[in-house]
Amino acid sequence: MSESRSPSALPADFASRARALGSATLYEASGLPCAVDPLVRSIWSGAFVAAPAYPLVCSPGDNLAIHIAMERVPRGSVLVVSTSNFVAGYWGEVLTVAAEAAGVVGLVIDGGVRDVAAMTARGFPVFARGISVRGTLKASAPSVGQPMMFTGVPVAEGDLVVADDDGVIVIPAAEAERTIVSGEARAAKEAVMMEQLAQGASTLELMGLTQWRKSA
User: Fold this and answer.
1) pLDDT tens per residue, the chain (216 residues)?
2) Taking phi first (over 0 means left), then psi (-120 to 50 degrees means alpha), and beta for anything else, what does residue 6 get?
3) Based on the structure, what is the number of domains in the chain?
4) Cα–Cα distance, 48 to 181 (Å, whole number)
5) What pLDDT, on the 0 to 100 scale, is given for residue 215?
6) Residue 95 placed within a domain
7) Rounded distance between C-alpha atoms, residue 161 and residue 103, angstroms
8) Which domain holds residue 41?
9) Residue 123, in any domain of the structure
């Protein structure tokens, strides 16, 4: 395990600020093509993670890269694992226990996982394309810790991953502060709008869409 590497160059309190905003607000605020394939979803309701990414690539049906990553990943990171969308049981209870010991705070994978009940009971955040009992080989490790494309979204070590029930986004580290600040401004504006709606205003009025009202 590398102890000398900084887990993140992200803004202070990024995790709590991201939790308050959520993935959808941050995606809208970012203005970036940072949304992961919506088929990559939480395996249990209410899961949340906001953490720096540690990217790796597995060969289809082979999870050796994950085992190697456990020896290299900085504490406080979320693993982002590309499998070329091949659904098998790359991850289960054993790797979850290993991840917790290594300080890994979550998993995002475009493949599959298993032992769902155990991960749910442990409260370990996992976002996956599917669930599969199929085991995996341990024969190749295409990439560990290097930049990659994940369902069309670029991911580099240290980028901000935010994942919740609405989906998964990956924001470049250099854009994280701007995105969070923009998200907070957006949330404040929406809070005012919702207060006005509660007092009887309409969305057509507040969004400048009154031209779509039917004539009396």
Assistant:
1) 343 334 457 888 999 999 999 999 999 999 999 999 999 999 999 999 999 999 999 999 999 999 999 999 999 999 999 999 999 999 999 999 999 999 999 999 999 999 999 999 999 999 999 999 999 999 999 999 999 999 999 999 999 999 999 999 999 999 999 999 999 999 898 889 888 889 888 888 888 888 887 754
2) beta
3) 1
4) 20
5) 58
6) yes
7) 16
8) 14-192
9) yes
**Tokens standing for residue 29:** 């605020």
Q: In 3D, which of 123, 72, 129, 133 has the Cα closest to residue 100? A: 123
Full-model pTM? 0.90
Looking at the domain assignment, is residue 211 inside a domain? no
Binding residues: 92-95, 114-115
Residue list, annotated binding site for substrate: 92-95, 114
d(CA 105, CA 170): 15
Binding residue ranges for Mg(2+) = 115
Residue 7 is predicted with a pLDDT of 44
Q: Residue 36 sits in a domain of what CATH number?
A: 3.50.30.40
Say which amino acid occupies 110.
Answer: D
CB-CB contact of 83 with 90 (8 Å): yes
> What are the C-alpha distances in Å from 86 to residues 6, 29, 30, 44, 90?
32, 31, 29, 21, 10
CA distances from 142 to 3, 9, 13, 82, 211 (A): 24, 26, 34, 10, 55
